[in-house]
Amino acid sequence: MIEDLEGFLEHGLGDVEEAVRKAAAAEVMPRFRQLAAHEIVEKNGPHDLVTVADRRAEEHLTAALTGLLPGSVVVGEEAVHADPASYAALRGDAPVWIVDPVDGTRQFVHGDPGFCTLVALARGGELLASWTYAPALDEMAVAVRGRGARLGGKELRCGAPEPGRPIEVATSHPDFTTPDQKRALLGLRTDGVHTRPCGSAGLEYLAIAKGELDAIAFSWENAWDHAAGLLLVAEAGGDHRTVAGEHFRIAGDNALPFTAARDTATVDRLVALLSGGA
C-alpha cells in the first residue's frame, strides 16, 4: 500500500484535480442559484446548512476518489454527519480522502460565489496533498507535501504581512464557539489586529496563501474544513498552531482556538494573544 501511495503521489494527482472539477461541474454548479426550498436543510442551526448539491457532490467524489486509489477511504462531511463513527478513519492506516463537497454552503445557498470544494489526501495523520476548487470563481489551488503550492499552475507564496499595518484576521462565527473560546478570541481585540467573521474556511486559507489575508483564528476542528487549507498555507510558506503551541492535528484532540498565518512570527503573536499573553 505504501508503494502504491507513493506512485500515486508521483503520477495520479492530475486525475484528482480532474475528478474535483467533474464533481463540481456535475453536481454543484448546475444547482448554483437554482436551489428549491426543499433542497436546503438546517443541520445545527441557520448557519449550518446542507443542500442536495453537498450530498450529491460528496457521493460523486467518494466514488471517483476511491476508484483512483484502491484501498483508500473517505471521511466526508455529510457521511460523518450520518455516521459519526466514520470519522475514526483519520486515525487508521489506510490512505484517507478528506472531503468537503461545498465549503461555504451558506454562501452557496445565498447565490454568493464565495464557496469551494475541498479535498485532501492524508495517511496516518499526515497531510500529503490537497485541492481547493472555487468553481464559481474559476480558481484551483493544489498543494503537495514538500513540493509547494500552486494556484492555476503558478507558485503561491504567503510572504510576511506588511510591517506597521494591522494584522487582518478572519475568525470563527460566534455560533461555533464555547464561552471559553469566545474569551480567547476576545484577546485579538487589541491594537494592531483587525478581525472579521470568516466566510468559507477553504477560501480564507487560500487568501492567506495568496497573501491577501494575514491569518485565521478558528474554534472548531472538523478535518474537512481545515485539512486542505492547512497544507496549502504550509506549502506556501505559512504556519499554524493551537493555543497549546502545537501544530493542528487533523484527527482531532486539539486545544482550541487555533491559528494559521502567513508566517511564524504572526502565528507566535496570535497564539500569545489567544492564550491571554501580551
UniProtKB/TrEMBL annotation:
Superkingdom of the organism of origin: Bacteria
Catalytic reactions of this protein: a myo-inositol phosphate + H2O = myo-inositol + phosphate
InterPro entries: Inositol_monoP_metal-BS (IPR020583), Inositol_monophosphatase-like (IPR000760), Inositol_monophosphatase_CS (IPR020550)
Keyword field: Hydrolase, Magnesium, Metal-binding
Its EC number(s): 3.1.3.25
Pfam annotation, one family: Inositol_P
Protein name (Swiss-Prot/TrEMBL): inositol-phosphate phosphatase
Annotated organism of origin: Streptomyces monticola
